[in-house]
Amino acid sequence: MAPRTERLRHRIERRLLALWFTTRPTPADRRLARLLAPLSWLAGRIALRRRATRLQRDPQGRPAVIVVGNLLVGGTGKTPAVAAIARGLTDRGLRVGVLAGGYRARDPGPHRVTSGSDPQCVGDEPVLLARLTGLPVASGRDRRAALDSLVAWHPGLDVVVSDDGLQHFGLPRRLQLAVFDRRGAGNGRMLPAGPLREPLSTAAGLDALLLNGTDHAPVEHPTVFQFRVMPTVLRRVGGAEGTGDDDFLTLAAFRQRHAGRRIVAVAGIADPSRFFMVLDAAGIVFQPVPLPDHARLDRDWLASLSGGRDDTLFVMTDKDAVKLASHDGLPPCWALEVAAHFDGTFFGWLTSHLPAPAARQPLLQD
Hints:
By secondary structure, this protein is of the alpha/beta class. The chain has helices spanning about 5-20, 25-55, 80-90, 120, 125-135, 145-155, 250-255, 270-280, 300-305, 320, 345-350, and strands at about 65-70, 95-100, 110-115, 135-140, 160-165, 175-180, 210, 225-235, 250, 260-265, 285-290, 310-315, 335-340. Helices cover about 35% and strands about 20% of the residues.
């Protein structure tokens, strides 16, 4: 990590999140919002023009591209939703690939991603998606180029599920799905005065809204589905991980086995409080260390958090854990695995908009 840079980014993110999602704005919040309002107005005009002039809908293309994205900045449970959609369509006989942007990746790509790829090179979320799904994954800043590469590497795909990309208008798409969580649309303003990447009015032109852990949509839409991201197990990270029964523990078993240990919980996601609430609800006592979304982690930084205590144990999100998979000599680390579960009507609606599967076996990752 670059501690000074990461700390500065974290302070800026926290200040903006407080502005965007507070229900009781302070006088300072109101002054900052007024200061940023002209930039937000300009951002909204540009976003509407770009969507009107550059969006490429491709209703007949094959593979059919499903874009699962956000209208607002920050995590909403989108990546677990993408993994669940990709696996669910595979279970229904479709040959599925996955597309991801690779935010903060060192190389712009396109990249052919596997569970063993370097997350610093290709991005952490693409590696996580490859591990969660076992399906072909491509990443790249140019979504259209990454899509073309994925199709060239894996001919015969029926469907490609794109993790984010609603605002990458050069990416052709059959369906556009926007994910919202309990925070809704925040203060409803455009960047930088609010969290919205596009005006909320553009939701009317999307095919469906996906609500994570809430039944309240921030805008009216005729097609709304609910899902929940639920914890499954804690998985040991590093070494010969995943080789024995002791490498996977339920939250209750983890709490009992490690009672009395010093536990440090690390979360480099958009809303670290979601992760901390899961641990707290399980009765795990921990020291929280919130980080910026996509923060870089390494072995030496973890060692500095242990304070020289040999009894320190680290718990982190699965997205953070992929950054440490190749590190030797890690202190004891565990990653929380989660899975998204959709309501019963979602996949029926989704498959009705997709090509019928061919009579062949699912295509798995090389």
